[in-house]
Amino acid sequence: MANATSTSSDLGREEIRQYLVAPSCDELLARAEGVRRKCVGDTVFIRGLVEFSNWCARNCLYCGLRRDNRALKRYRMSRAEILQAVRALAEKGIHSVVLQSGDDLSYSRETICGLLNDIKRDHPPMAVTLSIGERPMDDYQAFRDAGADRYLLKHETASPELYEKMHPGQSFRQRMEILRRLRELGYQVGVGGMVGLPGQTLNDLASDILFIQEFQPDMAGIGPFLPQADTPLHDQSAGSEALTLRMLALARIVTKNAHLPATTALASLDPVGGLLAGLRAGCNVIMISGTPAMYCIDYKIYDKRARVSLEVARDAISAAGRIMSLERGDSLKK
Length: 334
Ligand code: SF4
What we know:
Low-confidence stretches: 1-7
Number of helices: 13
Radius of gyration: 18 Å
Distance between the termini: 30 Å
Number of strands: 9
Strand content: 5-15%
Largest sheet: 9 strands, parallel
Bound molecules: iron/sulfur cluster
CATH superfamily: Aldolase class I
Order of helices and strands: HHEHEHEHEHHEHEHEHHEHHE
Helix content: 40-55%
CATH class: Alpha Beta
């Protein structure tokens, strides 16, 4: 392995595997910290997350929003409710919003474009990320034309076999094609995956890092697999926080300057401590909840999900000795 002060970014499969299994992660974290300091600095950007619908047409085995989960109380926020949630974030001075939902095609292309138009009219400095899953290809162009700045479409796992096992009826190839298309359209593109999926191997995790290294996303969200009681994977063990932190550190090293959120999944294991550990592993973004409390409770992608507030984010950032920013935090890769 390279020494702790190296910031060389290209890693091979074997080196990644060694970092994942090494008895101590001190060298890896020190290397990631060096890259983080040099390439993204001390700023931690805040994103406001508005989860506007928990309906989903897909049936991903790990996710509580899956179509076949009849135990979940479903909700869809109206256009007025979404705009109110965005306004509440803007009033806190936050300049970056992530609009997220299951794959819910009941929000038509026109509806999403109308929302984007309204947000850009009412809050011109606000950066808008869409995280609304797989749509007809033409939608991505329309959303971009209507002002969407970023698109988050997690690749979930870079193993095609594991991807298709976890996502019945979905194609890994299609996922990759969409990611390429999003980039062509000029979006700042986010990917991401889970650590500790049942059946996932160290080789699969190494493939995730190699994919991130090759694709060079503008953002990458990596969190532990956390089981949800009403899914087929309800009795599986959660992914390891320690392994997740190693994956984040590796993502920092291979991307250098991508935005890496300390994910809500980490915060769900330990609110301030999980975020702090993520920041120390190379993260530079925290997503806070902008979803109204009455809906947030039903956005059950996994159980015991934390509701990260601006105050919790501020505490973690302060404990890490870093600087909080409510600005847009555009991609550093442009
Ligand atoms: S992971 Fe996304 S696409 Fe899959 S069921 Fe959950 S919300 Fe739907």
